[in-house]
Amino acid sequence: MSASDTFLTLGIETSCDETSVAVLRGEAELLANSVYSQVDLHATYGGVVPEVASRNHVVKLPYLVAETCASIGVPLSEISLIAATYGPGLVGPLLVGLTHGKGLARGLDVPFIGVNHLEGHIFAHRISEPDAEPPFMALVVSGGHTSLIDVPVYGRYQLVGMTVDDAAGEALDKIGKMMGIGYPAGAEIDRLAEIGDPKTVRFPRPMIGSPGFDFSFSGLKTAVVYHLKKNPRERQEDIAASVLASVVEILTKKSIEAARRFHRKRLVITGGVAANSHLRRALAEEGGERGIQVSFPPLSLCTDNAAMIAAVGAFRHLQMGESHPLSLRPQPSLGLGNTAE
Ligand code: KG4
Ligand code: ZN
Q: Ligand 1 test: best mutation among 172, 177, 301, 334, most atoms within 8 Å of CB?
């Protein structure tokens, strides 16, 4: 038995509206991953209210830590490392998880490490496919992010492109609101699009032909507003299918092109929007034609979760000898990697 077989990392994620706690053995063996989603609490407001999120993390987190450890029969005293997200995200929610994590590390007298949430999304792939090592191109696509990140090895990143305005999931949520769909709207748009005609409206594909790999989705949102004003009787299914046709074409084209430009044979798609069935089909088909293997971690690891945070913490601590002082502050605008020229 190697030392890492008994090394247990407790991960904490509270950067937005999911409270999550996970326990990982070694670098990639997931023992528990509990997620409490606050989505219903925010639905009435049509988006995440930071103060409501912070308050609920405070209430839920200590119970979730106790419940998660109890569910696998691991007492807190056996934990070797505490890993908590320190950015990017909402400052109040980040502060709750970070402070709780530091308190646990102090009380248990174990090292503490702050984790970059975006690196976490990439590490979802390490848990689901531990043998499919980098290099690969990663697309992190959620309500908060749309970023293409080249991963030559774990721990080294190059930001290849990102959204210049709304994230793809954010645009879908805003469009859904205009269509009268509840928050968040991505999954419902996905479902409606299954029975709609994507050729009903040709919505714009902003920046699809622009050089580089940046994205833009706010123009699409504006085009949908005008269309809905002029055509209030259009079927929701057809609007959903037409909107997704635009989003899926943009994400697919840019991701495959980025993988090709960087000579990567694998593309990893992660974040909440990676649940989209149309995106999955389009990328699998396009990747197959271009000789690029497309990987999607399971949904429970794509949406915000603490397993991916624990995986980064364990890797950085065990392989790179990293830990952070308890003075580490939350960094709401934390980035990942250098920008490509
Ligand atoms: O990763 P996530 O749970 O939270 C962050 O934003 O970090 O992603 C949530 C986003 C929301 O915008 C939601 O509408 C979108 O993911 N989403 C989807 C689907 N399921 C969730 N978008 C498109 N199709 C889906 N099936
Ligand atoms: Zn996220």
A: 172
Q: What is the pTM of this model?
A: 0.94
Report yes or no on 328 lying in a domain.
no
Query: What is the position in ligand 1's atom list of the atom closest to the CA of 191?
Result: 26
Question: Are 23 and 68 contacting, i.e. CB atoms less than 8 angstroms apart?
Answer: yes
On whether the CB atoms of residues 182 and 43 are closer than 8 A, the answer is yes
CATH number (domain holding residue 116): 3.30.420.40
Ligand nearest to the CA of 118: 2
As for ligand 1, residues whose beta carbon falls within 6 Å of it are 16, 142-144, 169, 172-173, 184-187, 190, 271-273, 275-276, 303-304
Q: Any residues with CB less than 8 A from the CB of 173 and at least 6 apart, and which?
A: 47, 143, 183, 184, 185, 186
- Per-residue pLDDT tens over the stretch 191-229: 999 999 999 999 999 999 899 999 999 999 999 999 999
| C-alpha 207, offset from chain centre | 23
Residues 138 and 283 in one domain: yes
Same domain? For 118 and 149 the reply is no
Q: Is residue 228 part of a domain?
A: yes
Give per-residue pLDDT as tens, 283-330.
999 999 999 999 999 999 999 999 999 999 999 999 999 999 999 999
Number of domains in the chain: 2
Residue-range definition of the domain harbouring residue 220:
134-299
- Residue 339 has what pLDDT? 46
CA angle (272 as vertex; 69, 219 as ends), nearest 5: 155
Residue 129 lies in a domain: no
Q: What is the dihedral of CA 104, 96, 115, 106, to 10 degrees?
A: -20
Ligand 1 nearest-atom number relative to CA 302: 1
CA of 271 to the centre of ligand 1 (A): 7
135 is written with which tokens? 């290099």
On whether both 118 and 150 belong to a single domain, the answer is: no
Using most ligand atoms within 8 A of CB, pick from 38, 119, 141, 142 the residue to mutate for ligand 1: 142
Residues 235 and 283 in one domain: yes
Residue nearest to atom 13 of ligand 1 (CA): 186
Q: List pLDDT tens digits, range 77-135.
A: 999 999 999 999 999 999 999 999 999 999 999 999 999 999 999 999 999 999 999 99
Q: Residue 341: pLDDT above 70?
A: no
Within-domain flag for 54? yes
What is the CA(12)–ligand 2 centre distance, in A? 13
* Same structural domain, 28 and 110: yes
